Amino acid sequence: MFLQTPTPDTSGYMIAGYAVAFITMALYVASMAMRSRNLNQDLATLEEMEKSAAKEQPAKPKKSPAKTVTKKSRKK
Amino acid sequence: MQDKPVTLKILDIVSVILLGVSTYLALVFAPTELVMGDVQRVFYFHIGTAWTALLGFILAAVFSVIYLIKKELKWDRLQVAAIEVSLVFFFITIVLGSIWARPAWNTWWTWDPRLTTAAVTELIYIAYFMLRQGIDDPDRRARFGAVYALVGGISAPITFFAIRLFRSIHPVVIGSANANQEKMNMTSDMRVAFFFALFAFTVIFIDLFWNRIRLGDLQEKVEQLKLKVTI
């Protein structure tokens, strides 16, 4: 029993390991949240642009009844 | 963007709870290993992240095959999501392994077969994203990505079997080791923490994977709308 080597104190490494694991996961989740937020902003802007572009387009002229071209109308 | 499905919201919460419980089991519940001390506790997260990461790389290879057959871009988005989450998890695996190695092997890094194949796998998938960045055409990018991920997927089983096929100082945790290899002996409490960590990280992986797929879908939507507006 007296010859048993004591358990080494490696708690510092353990703390470092868990810190790395949690920080990496937190950074990844944060990066996904940021990318999602930016994409949602882009989407809102693009939808706005699409709407304004649709408004700016001149309304299509109403179809007038097709006139048949006759020899008389050509002469006029 | 569409609101998150209720199932995903629940999965988000469950993942956080599982991560907390797994941390408790690893740090408090599991006994201290007598030879290595507290640093052995990183092993639970090390294996949990390694298992899900390697599974994710294989999953990505399967999605690649489906993309190459069906030519539908949704399979490309699934593949990217699987690789991205796996890359993050595998990074954690490698760093935790290195931290464990310092007091156990008296070095941060050694070119052991397992460590080398793991580092190569990580680099292969970093290069995958660099390849994708360089291609503008979505179909071409997806095709090149699929072929690359399919070939790269071979590195996952090689990494897993490296300690069984070659002489290695890396301990064997799952399955039988060679006579000259170190095998991990766990107490029943350690086993509880170990299997719970495997389960917890699998659920966390699924949660992150699902979130990443949604992000990919949103990205696709924005790209489509950009094209529409510019035309």
In brief:
The complex is a heterodimer of chains A (about 80) and B (about 230). Chain A is mainly α.
Can you tell me about this structure?
The complex is a heterodimer of chains A (76) and B (231). With 76 residues, chain A is mainly alpha-helical. Chain A has a domain at 11-57. Chain A has two helices and no strands. Chain B has 231 residues and is mostly helical. In chain B, 76% of the residues lie in helices and 0% in strands. Chain B is built from seven helices and no strands. Chain B starts with 5 loop residues before the first helix and ends with a helix. The relative contact order of chain B is 0.17. The model of chain B has no long low-confidence stretch (mean pLDDT 91). The chains are: A mainly alpha (76), B mainly alpha (231).
Q: How would you summarize the topology of this molecule?
A:
The complex is a heterodimer of chains A (76) and B (231).
Chain A: H1 11-56, H2 71-75
Chain B: H1 6-29, H2 42-70, H3 73-105, H4 113-133, H5 138-152, H6 155-165, H7 188-230
The radius of gyration computed from the alpha-carbon positions of chain A, rounded to a whole number of angstroms, is 37 Å
State the helical fraction of chain A: 55-70%
Rough outline of chain B = globular
* Radius of gyration of chain B using CA atoms only: 20 Å
The helix count of chain A comes to: 2
Major sheet size, sense and barrel closure of chain B: none
Oligomer: heterodimer
General shape of chain A: rod-shaped
Strand fraction band of chain A? under 5%
Tell me the count of domains of chain B.
1
- Structural class by SSE content of chain B: mainly alpha
DSSP helical segment count of chain B: 7
Q: Total number of β-strand segments of chain A?
A: 0
